[in-house]
Specification:
Blueprint lengths: L1 H22 L3 H25 L4 H31 L13
Helix pairs in contact: 1-2, 2-3
């Protein structure tokens, strides 16, 4: 039941994140949904790494978390800049970054 439990939990967290990204128009909610999808992939990597008694998945999950932390910094800076200039948080109306 261990493999199936990890797959079920990871797939359900990923589906919640994908639905949140596709349905919502608020960039902060979309951003949190992407982070939720990354966390589900990390959960899957760490779960199967522990089943195989290997550290490879855990090390790769640590690298994914590092990239996600950098993504948080850049993404939140862009979202805050857009909100300060536009006072609008609808994704369909954001075209500020176009040249």
């Amino acid at each position: 039941m261990g493999h199936q439990f990890v797959l079920l939990i990871s797939a359900s967290i990923f589906c919640i994140g994908a639905a949140g990204f596709l349905i919502r128009k608020n960039p902060l909610i979309m951003f949190m949904s992407v982070e939720l999808m990354l966390n589900s992939a990390n959960f899957l990597l760490i779960g199967f790494s522990s089943f195989q008694n290997s550290m490879d998945g855990q090390i790769f999950a640590l690298m994914v978390m590092t990239v996600a932390a950098a993504e948080v910094v850049v993404g939140l800076a862009i979202i805050l800049t857009i909100f300060r200039t536009r006072h609008d948080m609808d994704v369909d109306h954001i075209n500020t970054l176009k040249g």
